[in-house]
Amino acid sequence: MHELAVTESILSISEKYAKENGASKVTSINLVIGRLSSIVDESVQFYWDIISKDSLCYQAILNFERRSAVLKCNVCDHEYEIDTSLQPCPACGSPNIKVISGEEFFVDSIEIEKADE
Ligand SMILES: [Zn+2]
Fold it and tell me: How far from 60 is each of 9, 24, 29, CA to CA, in Å?
């Protein structure tokens, strides 16, 4: 995954939201990252500090929430959650599994400050 492109999209989503809501600045942004996403928090933060300068998002805090991944076994239909990397089915031991969720990455909410408040 390319963190710079991801970070740029977080910035454009946040700027758009801030402008539509008459914000004087963005104070924090809550991000959800699936456990199986290859996005590295530190890389996003690194790019964020650079590209958010001269924007309404300057010094906004990025909060990262890692969601558990949900997998389903193709052999016995067992569904299970994991907090680490991919693991075979705990019920039957089969490695024949599919990912139900865990690869997502999105902006969950944005907190702003208004000029006259
Ligand atoms: Zn199974």
Answer: 15, 12, 7
Average pLDDT, 10 consecutive residues per value, the chain (117 residues): 90 97 96 93 96 96 96 97 91 96 95 83
Q: Is residue 9 part of a domain?
A: yes
Check: CB of residue 102 under 8 Å from CB of residue 69.
yes
Ligand 1 mean position to 95 CA, how many Å? 8
Separation of 80 CA from ligand 1 center, angstroms? 10
Distance 68 CA to ligand 1 centre (A): 19
Q: Could you tell me the distance, in angstroms and rounded to a whole number, from the CA of residue 33 to the centre of ligand 1?
A: 26
- CATH code where residue 25 lies: 3.30.2320.50
The residue type at 40: V
pTM of the model: 0.85
> Residue 105 C-alpha to ligand 1 middle, in angstroms?
27
pLDDT at 1: 52
Q: Is residue 16 part of a domain?
A: yes
pLDDT at 68: 94
Number of domains in the chain: 1
